[in-house]
Amino acid sequence: TQRHGGEIATFAKMMLEQEELQCPDCKDKGEIVMDFAAGDHICRNCGLVVGERIIDETSEWRTFANDENDNDPNRVGGPMNPFLEDGGLSTTIISIAKPGQQDKGGGALSKWHNRSAASSNDRALLNAFREIKNLADLLELPQTIVDRSNEIYKKVDDTKALRGRGLQAVVAAVIYIACRIEGVPRTYKEICGQTTATKKDIGRCSTAISKILGTNLETISSTNYMSRFCSRLELPMDVQRAASDVAAEATRLAIAAGKSPISVAAAAIYMVSCLSNDKKSQRDIAEVTSVSEVTIRNAYKDLYPYRQQLIPSWWTPAEAIDSLPLN
């Protein structure tokens, strides 16, 4: 594949260079060969060493793994962690006893060394970073959110302002704020569904963290959720764009004032889907948006009287606008 293609190109380049080399003794071209073990260029005719200590640019297939059955060719450790006191580059002792074999003290030595090597603060940070990674995986969040969450947690931990708060609540709040900052917000319901922390605790921690950071989070609009909701409902792009325009226009006209952005987004999706060939029921939308059917129905009732104004002119619905259901 791509790696092997690169190796072939490197080898071909080396062969061309050897063909261009000329032995200064016998003056023959194309007779220069490379001794990979010694790193020398040698003339095949007279045996003269034309070049020495030549760097071998091909791949190194030697493995540095501890286990004979481990074919991992990595020869370096993990990257630096700027959030830890030692950068995450401290010495680590591991036990290489195989299953069923007696551990000759390596496991105990590894345990006590790692306990003493890392400070209690670093151990707490590593535990929190693991919790952040696990929750981010459950929420299917990208690595950028994990990195931002780690940064926020480190800043908050340095202030000691949230000492005594539950780790699950703090981690959930950190991820909630990181998603808001990165422009991919998640609802409290979505986060609560993947953690043991309550919505009230996450909300309190989020407020406290915002004050610590001194940041004013941008107001969430309905369009922030639209692409994710429509993607989960498997709606085509034109329906998604039309629903986004409906939600944006409803917000501009203050039609759904007092309603949450999520309920407005759900109602806009329902309205547009009813006019398209990809119809979705209120139950389908409720399952994806974590909003009750009653909430969607009430928000839709607010939008319905303004249906002619809300449907964008560029979009051609599959059905007449007046055919929309009353609720």
Description:
The radius of gyration is 31 Å and the shape is flat. By secondary structure, the protein is mainly α. Helix 9 crosses helix 10. It contains 13 helices and three strands; from the N terminus they run H-E-E-E-H-H-H-H-H-H-H-H-H-H-H-H. A three-stranded antiparallel beta sheet has the order 1-2-3, with no helix packed on it.
Sheet with most strands: 3 strands, antiparallel
Q: Rg to the nearest angstrom? A: 31 Å
Number of strands: 3
N/C terminus separation = 56 Å
In order across it, which strands form the biggest sheet?
Answer: 1-2-3
Q: What structural category characterises the helix and strand content?
A: mainly alpha
Low-confidence stretches: 1-5
From N to C, what is the helix and strand string?
A: HEEEHHHHHHHHHHHH
Average residue-wise pLDDT: 80
Helix content: 40-55%
Instruction: Give the overall shape.
Output: flat
Features:
single chain, 327 residues, mainly alpha, disordered N terminus
Structure described in brief:
With 327 residues, this protein is mainly alpha-helical. It has helices at residues 2-20, 106-117, 120-138, 143-159, 167-181, 188-192, 199-213, 223-232, 237-252, 261-274, 282-289, 293-303, 307-310; strands at 32-35, 40-43, 49-51.
